[in-house]
Design goal:
single chain, alpha/beta, seven-stranded mixed β-sheet, six-stranded mixed β-sheet, globular
């Protein structure tokens, strides 16, 4: 037994009472005797007395009352041992952080080797998750000690799956934002999805506005796509050789995007962006890359500099493991600041190989380009002999059949596309003029390869998806659905008297919890992420699944109905009032 029901109830009560501060306490044992000692957090008082010595930081979020420390020492002298040490994470998940680990160790060794560390996630004065961790002396890490059933009242299947996942997968997830770290609580494990809904492992249904982060413009498991993938799989899942279908997909892409005379299929949007940048450097003979703060172009080394998406969520825009020499080759500017672009190119234009941009930012939340911004980028890059790269991994075939370049009437030199061209399966593409793409092997000296590039399953799904999207009427439908969802959110915020700025382009939108326009990464960061966390959980409880981060987009699909949008509006009205 890790913890009794009575102890658990008392811990949850204490965590809620201390919110939004951290709480802490200890359970000690002596034989069959157990003592629960809640400790008092005097961080506020200490900081008020001496803010220099006792700063407000994540590492110093808790200061135990010296009287409680004396009580614990006295009990230890009486033969009690530390069995459980618990603390809360306000507005964050029930995970054992690097700070937690550092505080539990003394010179690399656990201060209390036999103790179990319990972490409580509290969001908006509600306990959202609990987890237990124990030191593994052999592996020298803190392993999950419970099986997802620490709370006897909620033996959720998702919790058990997360506990199992954390033993084999970093953080229990295969992509960081899925971990719910920025909103608190624990992720739902998905069992299946259909149309506009998905079901978690516990059988709960959710109206989905994540859509696998954008590519599922037709919704989940559309019949035409499922049938195409099934037929393709029956003929083999991968060949590592050319197929007729990949030629058809390249033709469809080039027809929709006149700037892409030649197209190379790859396996992801990250790979597409990385490869396009290599082509730009190879074609120009220059090294420098320009990107914009908050724009995310995948996790290649050169691109993890002031990135958005997961980086924005965790407040660590630069990743460890990126060599400083590579980072120095990437220059960053504020999105929508054309004058800053002109100034940089005026100073270093002869060294710049390319400027890469999300034409509609989607990874700091949705931010539209200012009037003339994209055209200005086209003008400046051409003037200085640099290439303009549009990262349309999100916007491609989403905001228009021909993407943002069709919507705004600006053609880049190179374009990157992502999972939407594979109906949500792992695929990407990059392409440009014939003269540029002639630099790519085997025609030229810019090397790029991939065994699964153009794999038959993704290509079949992509052809089925694009066949549906060729009917331009679908974009009028998506615009209408997106507009109605935007109106519902604005009305709900007005009724709840909650400051909310809704940015939308077609069927992608973000509701920022702040006043005033959001036009770049700096203004996006003004958003109240703690209020978003409360809103996120309130929506989840009402059966609406949103991105577990303030700095992401919500996506409407053709599977959403008018009734679905109305339901989301009603849920938002209740959730905003609660948040």
């Amino acid at each position: 037994m890790l913890i009794t029901r009575e102890e658990l109830a008392a811990i949850k009560e204490q965590a809620v009472a201390e919110y939004p501060n951290e709480c802490c306490g200890v359970i000690l044992v002596r034989g069959a005797e157990r003592r629960h000692v809640p400790c008092r957090n005097v961080q506020d008082q200490m900081h008020a007395r001496d803010p220099i010595t006792f700063p407000r930081t994540a590492r110093n979020a808790y200061y135990m009352d010296p009287i409680d420390a004396l009580r614990l020492n006295r009990l230890a002298d009486e033969g009690f041992a530390f069995a459980v040490i618990y603390h809360s994470h306000p507005n964050a998940g029930a995970y054992f952080s690097e700070t937690d680990r550092g505080q539990a160790l003394i010179k690399g060794e656990p201060a209390y080797p036999g103790a179990v560390y319990v972490v409580v996630s509290v969001v908006g004065r509600e306990v959202k998750a609990l987890a237990a961790y124990r030191w593994n002396a052999e592996r020298r890490v803190f392993d999950r000690a419970d099986a997802g059933d620490l709370d006897p009242a909620e033996p959720a299947v998702s919790r058990r799956l997360l506990a199992a996942a954390e033993r084999r997968i970093p953080g229990g997830v295969n992509s960081p934002v899925r971990a719910f770290r920025s909103v608190g609580g624990e992720p739902r494990f998905v069992a299946r999805a259909e149309g506009a809904r998905l079901w978690d492992a516990d059988g709960r249904a959710y109206l989905d506005f994540v859509g696998s982060w954008g590519p599922l413009v037709l919704g989940h498991a559309p019949r035409a796509v499922v049938e195409a993938v099934t037929a393709a799989a029956a003929g083999g899942t991968s060949y590592g050789a050319p197929t007729r279908q990949e030629v058809e997909l390249a033709e469809a892409i080039a027809t929709a995007y006149p700037s892409m005379e030649l197209v190379r299929l790859v396996s992801s949007g990250t790979e597409a962006a990385m490869s396009a940048i290599r082509v730009a450097r190879g074609a120009t003979g220059r090294d420098l890359l320009v990107k914009f703060d908050g724009c995310y172009h995948g996790h290649a080394d050169s691109l993890l500099v002031k990135a958005g998406s997961g980086g924005a969520t965790f407040g660590i825009p630069d990743s460890r493991g990126v060599p400083s020499a590579l980072a120095a080759l990437t220059l960053t500017l504020p999105f929508n600041d054309l004058e800053a672009v002109r100034a940089l190119f005026g100073a270093r234009g002869s060294e710049i190989a390319a400027l890469i941009v999300e034409p509609v930012a989607g990874n700091m939340g949705v931010v539209a380009p200012a009037p003339g911004f994209l055209a200005g980028l086209r003008e400046v890059t051409a003037q200085h002999g640099a290439l303009l790269i549009f990262d349309e991994v999100i916007t491609g075939f989403r905001v228009a059949y021909g993407g943002a370049q069709e919507l705004y009437g600006v053609q880049p030199d190179l374009t990157c596309l992502g999972k939407i061209i594979g109906g949500g399966l792992p695929v990407g593409a990059y392409g440009g003029s014939r003269s540029l793409m002639n630099h790519v092997a085997p025609l030229g000296a810019v090397y790029q390869a991939g065994t699964l590039s153009g794999n038959p399953l993704a290509v079949a799904a992509g052809l089925a998806t694009l066949a549906r999207l060729r009917d331009r009427e679908v974009y009028r439908r998506l615009e209408a659905l997106g507009s109605e969802l935007e109106r519902g959110l604005r009305d709900a915020a007005a009724k709840a008297n909650v400051p909310l700025t809704v940015n939308r382009v077609g069927s992608m939108l973000t509701a920022f919890f702040c006043d005033g326009a959001v036009t770049d990464y700096a203004s996006a960061k003004r958003a109240d992420t703690k209020r978003y966390a409360r809103y996120f959980h309130a929506m989840l409880e009402r059966g609406v699944f949103l991105a577990p981060s303030q700095f992401e987009a919500a996506f409407v699909s053709l599977a959403h109905t008018d009734a679905d949008i109305a339901l989301a509006g009603r849920a938002a009205a209740e959730a905003l009032a609660a948040a």
